[in-house]
Every structure is written in structure tokens, then in C-alpha cells.
Amino acid sequence: MSNRPLTPSMEDYLEAILVLEKKNRVARVKDIAAMLDVQMPSVTGALKNLRDRNLIDYEKNSFINLTDMGLEKAKKIKKKHGILLSFMEIVLNESGEEAEKEACSWEHHLSTNVANKIQRVVDYIEEGFETGRITPDEWNRLIEG
């Protein structure tokens, strides 16, 4: 088992497996390949690496499931993704593919501490909108320059 940090690619695989497990109860190589837009042999190689790190249960030609440790890591990655997506949409007024792409890119390099601070900023701006302390028009003028 390796103690080296996970690469962004490995984190993407964990997050994809989590999403597929929630949707289908299990993940399959072809579903992961389709979700991440990669070839099936690439998925197989990544799965072996994740299995060697005890993050997934996987045998060739079988379903893929996250281990408890894999589930914990995948949930942390997904949470960071959600925080960043909220930040993009609420604070930066970005949405769609661009926001999704940026969130996916940033999540791999973000510490839990900074993610929590970003969440507090998002909450503060949202509360400002809800209470009228900040108007969406005023905020948009500020961020759009």
C-alpha cells in the first residue's frame, strides 16, 4: 500500500466511483470510462493502483466498490467539488461547463482548511442576498468590474 498522495486523476476515479455507486449501487469499468471520457484500459490501470492503496475492492471483470477508506476520501473530494461549484455559481456568478471544469481542476489542489474558508465566504454572500444586505445586481457589478 502506498502512502504517496493521490494524483488528480486518481481522485477523479474515486469521485466517479462514488457517483456511480450512488446511482447504480456498483461501478463498472465501462461506466467509469464513459463518465471520465477515457479508454477502458486506462480505467483498468487506475483501478489496480487504487486497489493497491486499499481504496477500492476490484477484481478483473467484476464490479468496483469503494472500501471504507476509499469512501472517506471520495466524499472529501466530492465535498470540495461542491464547495467550489457553489463558489463559482454564487460568488463568481459562473455556471455551466466552465464552472464545472474550474471546480474539478481546483478541487485537487485545495486543502480542507481553505475549502472550509471558501464555504464560509459562500455562506456569507448567500446570507447577504437573502437578507438584502447585498443585492445580486450590486454584487454582479462588483465582480464583473
Task: Based on the model shown, name its key terms.
2 strands, 7 helices, elongated, 71% helix, two-stranded antiparallel ribbon, 145 residues, mainly alpha, Arc Repressor Mutant, subunit A, Diphtheria Toxin Repressor, domain 2, 2 domains
Walk me through what this model shows.
Helices cover 71% and strands 3% of the residues. It has 145 residues and is mainly alpha-helical. The chain has a two-stranded antiparallel sheet with strand order 1-2. It starts with 7 loop residues before the first helix and ends with a helix.
Concise overview:
The chain has 145 residues and is mainly alpha-helical. It has two domains: 8-66, Winged helix-like DNA-binding domain superfamily/Winged helix DNA-binding domain (Arc Repressor Mutant, subunit A, Orthogonal Bundle); 76-144, Diphtheria Toxin Repressor, domain 2.
